[in-house]
Write a structure and sequence with these properties.
Elements: E1 8-18, E2 28-34, E3 54-57, H1 58-67, E4 72-76, H2 86-95, E5 99-104, E6 118-122, E7 147-152, H3 155-167, E8 175-180, H4 187-197, E9 202-203, H5 207-212
Parallel strand pairs: 2-4, 4-5, 5-6, 6-7, 7-8, 8-9
Antiparallel strand pairs: 1-2, 1-3
Cofactor: Mg(2+); S-adenosyl-L-methionine; [4Fe-4S] cluster
Function: Catalyzes the complex heterocyclic radical-mediated conversion of 6-carboxy-5,6,7,8-tetrahydropterin (CPH4) to 7-carboxy-7-deazaguanine (CDG), a step common to the biosynthetic pathways of all 7-deazapurine-containing compounds.
GO molecular function, one term: 4 iron, 4 sulfur cluster binding
Amino acid sequence: MDTPAAERLRLTEIFLSVQGESRTVGWPTVFVRLTGCPLRCQYCDTAYAFHGGDWWDIDAILAEVAKHGVRHVCVTGGEPLAQKRCLALLERLCDAGYEVSLETSGALDIAGVDPRVSRVMDLKTPGSKEAHRNRLENLPLLTAHDQIKFVICDRADYDWAKDMLATHALEKRCEVLFSPSQGQLAPRELAEWIIADRLPVRFQLQLHKVLWGDQPGR
């Protein structure tokens, strides 16, 4: 008997790697990459997840995750919340005892996400070409369990992010991450700006790219 559509999601890939970003950087992590994204950030490195993919039922996803034998799971995309059944998947993963994180663009409502999930939410800078998609109503929903990420393309992006940090007192809501956009801003330059301004943010590089470049599934 076919699985009801209400229990299925379209996936691009499931794979085991190390977490390259955020609070759990370095931990062996299963990544569940959902297909589809309504945004088109100019620096996107996962455009292959915009289309295609295969339908999986939630039980099959959990069974595949379990095969890898690690406790950290990251649901990513694309934009995972573009699929309504992502919320059910997150809940099931938490119920199964995993440490679950969600990587989301910040353009969609995060209110329905299970509170056990660590939401790693972007604020899109002007350099992304998608800053108009930021859903600022999400900001009051963030807690100390969550993280907010800025991908910085240039000095103008940095100044914009610094202003958003101050205007919304983001460091008092959750951990704040600043990352240089690969190939657009030298990592050392961003680090020096943060140090000079003594910003209450965490500088981060994409560890998986240091190790494996832009190879999909790593």
